[in-house]
Write a structure and sequence with these properties.
3 strands, about 15% strand, alpha+beta, 3-stranded antiparallel sheet
Length: about 140
């Protein structure tokens, strides 16, 4: 698919302060990690893969084709960096997957006969409930 080592060199990381409650520690430490990846200028993917990624990730990309991910789950900057790299690779792998072409299955003749027999039986049952026609 793609070389993970090469793609990691194209990533840029930025540590920012995490939002929310936490007291003095959270106000001083930048533990939240922001990952940015420029898809359009990437040398890892070929043109076909770039088009697939642009299409599949269009709601996650900026206008310039940059993917931005953030992670502030852990109190550790290193742990957040690990989490976000794993998430990034998983997103790319899922976006590059080529879905299998669906082949419509043929309905067996026995199933068709059974359905028609049940329909006939039900219509005869309902016809038997009607009042007789006296003319």
């Amino acid at each position: 698919m793609f070389d993970e080592g090469t793609i990691l060199q194209e990533l840029t990381f930025k540590a920012i302060r995490s939002s929310g409650s936490g007291g003095q520690h959270v106000n001083k430490v930048s533990s939240k990690v922001e990952l940015t990846f420029n898809l359009k200028e990437s040398s890892v993917f070929n043109d076909v893969q770039k088009i697939r990624l642009l299409f599949r990730l269009k709601n996650r990309l900026t206008k310039d084709g940059i993917l931005i991910l953030q992670c502030g789950e852990s109190r550790s900057q290193h742990k957040n960096k690990e989490i976000i790299v794993k998430r990034f690779i998983e997103i790319l792998k899922n976006a590059l997957k080529v879905p299998k072409k669906r082949r419509p299955t043929k309905i067996p003749k026995s199933v068709i006969k059974k359905r028609l027999k049940q329909k006939r039986h039900l219509s005869e049952k309902k016809a038997g409930r009607k009042k007789p026609d006296l003319q």
